[in-house]
Design goal:
Beta-Lactamase; Helix Hairpins; Heat Shock Protein 90; 5-stranded mixed beta sheet; 11 strands; 55% helix
């Protein structure tokens, strides 16, 4: 039962820190004001209203008794006396009956109180209207064939202080909640900035505008994140520089070997050795490409359709089909996005005769599906093929023309842009690569 309630509350409560903190501050204030208001209306206002209404009914009853009495012969003197002392305006209407239509409000505290006190005294021989006039109540009482019409101020049965009370109990609450909103917004803004900086850094963007602000704890977290970010960037730069140096050092002896092979008399042997050297150079380039997949390229607007067309133009048009509904734009590092698509498409052409590329629009993301008609791979290998240098020694080897880094590089690039890449079978009995990239 408790678990179900907690789950329900998690669904209906806001997810953001600002709104949760606002509820923590505002809920006690609102609850307190509601409690005070209920207590006031129940114990003070309703009792005061009831006493004032009962006093008014007694005055009206006294007037009616005096009017009916034989000892009171001067009606004008009686009505003038009530007008002077009780602020009543009294009209005597001969040969009239009470109105048939009801004008009292069912849920009005004033009408309910007046109805509750009038009924025991006058039965059903009364009618009143509290709506037609702003400050007056029209009360009519049946007396044989006459109607005694009495106008009296509403303040006689409704305390005027209730509006002032409601105003002063509501206004401070609103002011306190507004102050809380301003304070909480200032306190949560640094956390939002830190989360956005972490998201940008996770996508591989440069974050140079992060400044510590807010409370002491948030400032400390921002400073530590900034230090961590600089250490990671330093490590990536060192790795790229090291591999660039290794590439330069290795290419020099490989070039010398090529020159020496060109001068050899045994051309057949030289040709085989040159082929091995070419393969070593390609492996070296693959290593460098994998190491530089997190390069510090700036984010720009990318037309995904144009990028894919640019990659596909390097292949025979009869070997692929391309379909797209519209031009879709994303923010990212163009060269890296192009490299990831090129790796996937090259992998498809390596193991199939034809590939099928299509672009779809999903909720908040672009979906690129690249199918081929090759032999495919077993489902149990779907996760393994994304591991660097992983080899499959079966019908579909992802390492015929490389060292098993193509899909690893593609996955790193896609995930660094906040996207996702997955594998599945397709209707061509080959491999389907699905890439999702956020707008």
């Amino acid at each position: 039962m408790s678990y179900g309630l907690n789950k329900f509350l998690k669904k209906i409560l806001p997810k953001g820190l600002f709104y949760r903190a606002l509820i923590i501050v505002a809920a006690p204030i609102i609850l307190l004001q509601v409690t005070i208001t209920v207590v006031f209306f129940d114990s003070i206002w309703i009792k005061a209203n009831k006493g004032m209404t009962r006093s008014l009914v007694s005055e009206v009853k006294t007037l009616l008794d005096a009017y009916r009495s034989n000892e009171t012969s001067d009606v004008n003197f009686l009505t003038n006396l009530y007008k002077k002392n009780f602020d009543f305006v009294i009209n005597i209407k001969k040969n009239e009956k009470l109105p048939v239509t009801k004008s009292d409000r069912r849920f009005s505290p004033m009408d309910r109180s007046l109805r509750r006190e009038m009924k025991p005294v006058f039965g059903n021989q009364y009618w009143f209207d509290t709506v037609t006039y702003i400050d007056l109540v029209d009360l009519r009482i049946q007396n044989n064939s006459e109607i005694i019409q009495i106008f009296f101020p509403k303040k006689k049965i409704a305390p005027s202080s209730v509006r002032v009370f409601v105003l002063w109990i509501t206004l401070p609450s609103i002011i306190l909640i507004l102050i809380a909103i301003l304070f909480l917004r200032n306190q949560t803004r640094p956390i939002v900035k830190l989360s956005k900086a972490a998201e940008r850094f996770g996508k591989g963007e440069r974050v140079d505008d992060l400044r510590p602000s807010g409370s002491l704890e948030i400032r400390k977290a921002t400073l530590e994140f900034d230090k961590m970010m600089k250490r990671i960037n330093k490590h990536l730069n060192q790795r790229s520089e090291m591999l660039s140096g290794i590439s330069h050092d290795l290419r020099t002896p490989l070039t010398r070997l090529k020159l020496q092979l060109a001068m050899m008399d045994k051309k057949e042997t030289a040709k085989k050795m040159a082929s091995d050297i070419d393969e070593m150079e390609k492996m070296l380039n693959d290593y460098l490409q994998y190491a530089k997949s997190q390069s510090e390229e700036d984010y720009v607007s990318i037309d995904v359709q144009n990028v894919l067309k640019d990659v596909l133009k390097n292949y025979d048009q009869s070997k692929y089909e391309f379909s797209s509904m519209e031009n879709l734009i994303i923010q990212g590092r163009k060269n890296l996005i192009r490299r990831s698509f090129a790796n996937i498409i090259e992998n498809g052409f390596s193991y199939g005769n034809k590939i099928y590329v299509q672009i779809k629009k999903s909720v908040g993301s672009i979906v690129i599906i690249i199918d081929d008609d090759g032999p495919g791979i077993p489902k149990k290998e779907y996760e393994n093929v994304f591991k660097p240098f992983y080899r499959i020694d079966k019908s579909r080897s992802l390492n015929r023309s490389g060292v098993g880094l193509g899909l690893s590089i593609a996955q790193d690039i896609v995930k660094s842009h906040g996207g996702n890449i997955s594998l599945s079978g397709n209707k061509y009995n080959g491999l389907s690569v699905k890439v999702s990239l956020p707008f």
